[in-house]
Protein: Carboxymethylenebutenolidase
Amino acid sequence: MTEKKTTTPANNQFAPAVSPVTSTVIHTSDEGLHTGETTIATQGENMPAWYARPQDVAAPLPVVIVVQEIFGVHEHIKDVCRRLAHLGYLAVAPELYFRQGCPNEYDEISALLRDLVSKVPDAQVLADLDHVASWAGKHHGDLHRLFVTGFCWGGRISWLYAAHNPQLKAAVAWYGRLVGAHTLTSPQHPVDVTANLSAPVLGLYGGKDDGIPLDSVETMRQALRAANAKAEIVVYPEAGHAFNADYRPSYHQASAQDGWERMLAWFTAYDKGAK
Structure:
């Protein structure tokens, strides 16, 4: 396992499709942490990933799989991992597009979505996440305390993973799409799997999100009620899409901070190993 120390991030450590980076960007120190790149064996290949965990902790750690935005595992996702590691988690963010291409090769969001993101099959992603969990269990992680969170594209995947892996204890989905067209790569969406949720899910959404209209959020709420699923959706009226992305103009500090506290409380509520 290769470990690398991080430094103050430059703009080129973020995805080209969202440049330039705003002045609100947050950088969390890696002091007291083990952080770095690694590879995870999955489906006959080695998947790149980035992890962060506390130093000098003997007991197995609760695990949070951090699922990337459409922009891959860039500096913002790494910083989310560092924030979680400072709170005592092993956080790991896998590069889930690695077979299909690299997000850093795209400088336009439309091209990134069309030529890369749309080609990544959900089934492949969910199987890869299972291998991430297995890796974590062999690298200081406690799989009895397994959680997932994801942002944008990763928010949608977090809903799906909560219906896929019965070992998962809880999930938090940040502004992940809930409904959509059914395709070969995306045969189901969160609204289609509510009856199969085996882990409680907290969904965090923006009331001004043009890409995820409030009627789709209400459709999801109705589906969750019909399935008697253990889930909650919080809508922040003043926030748009990507309100936790502190490196973008979409960042809405009050909503992001409240969402972060709700996420931590959600994990704690379903962490049976916490003392």
About this structure: DSSP finds six helices and eight strands in the chain. The chain has one domain: 34-270. Residues 1-8 have pLDDT under 50 and may be disordered. The two ends are 29 Å apart (CA to CA).
